[in-house]
Amino acid sequence: MMWLLYSARMKILLTALLLLLAGVASAKPWWIRGAASNETDFLPPDVAFRVAASVDDNIIRVRWVIADGYYLYRHRMSITAESPDLVTFAPAMPPGVVKVDPYFGSQEIYRQQVEAAVRFTRIDAGAHPLQIKVIYQGCADAGLCYPPITKVIYPQESRPTAAAASHPFETIAILAGGLAFLLAGLLLRKGRKLELPAA
Q: How many CB atoms lie within 10 A of CB 60?
């Protein structure tokens, strides 16, 4: 009798656990909660709006690649210095397309891709790694607006090509050094005989 009671309790416990796991598995991600559409209709924010940055001389170029059916608000994009002793100026951005948004009214937006150019100066002469903070917000055409996204990015510094980096006299110096090394070897060898082992 006791065994039947224990078995019934175990069945109830297992059923409750399975229902709890099913509820967790069907939970919506944070960026879809409250949306009336199917949860598979929307991309995660990092897929909908991909961002990267690179450095070219004293300009940081921040580029967003925007998925089809999504857009970014121009006035909700900002780029600021994050590393110590880095000073950034206002970003130069191309004009956007005007869209009448049901939530924010008439807004400039970007689709597909956009690049901002930010002039900067460094007081530390490059002692710290270059870091910027990027904030942006966008929506899907299907009606979902994402919360503002904040990322700290380490821009990739473009390396100069070997031809651009070399000094005009570098090749002459290398050839002269090689010739001097050869001449020194010949002078040191002068007067010495090579002794061959006896056969």
A: 24
> Tens digits of per-residue pLDDT, 80-106?
988 888 888 999 999 989 988 776 788
- For the segment 103-124, what is each residue's pLDDT rounded down to a tens digit? 678 889 999 999 999 999 888 7
- The CA distance from 104 to 120, in Å, is 32
Q: What is the C-alpha to C-alpha distance for residues 93 and 109, in angstroms, rounded to an integer?
A: 11
**Cα within 13 Å of Cα(29), Cβ side:** 14
Strand ranges across the sheet with 78-81: 78-81, 132-136, 149-153
Contact between residue 133 and residue 82 where contact means Cβ atoms under 8 Å apart: yes
The CA distance from 23 to 83, in Å, is 43
Domain layout of the chain by residue ranges: 39-157
CA angle, residues 98, 100, 106, in degrees to nearest 5: 70
Place of tokens 């608000």: 73
Q: What is the DSSP letter of 40?
A: G
At 1 the pLDDT is: 57
Residue with tokens 């175990």: 10
DSSP 191: T
Domain 39-157 CATH (choose: 2.60.40.10, 2.60.40.1250, 3.40.190.10, 1.20.1250.20)? 2.60.40.1250
**Residue 139 to residue 170: CA distance in whole angstroms:** 54
3-state secondary structure of 185: helix
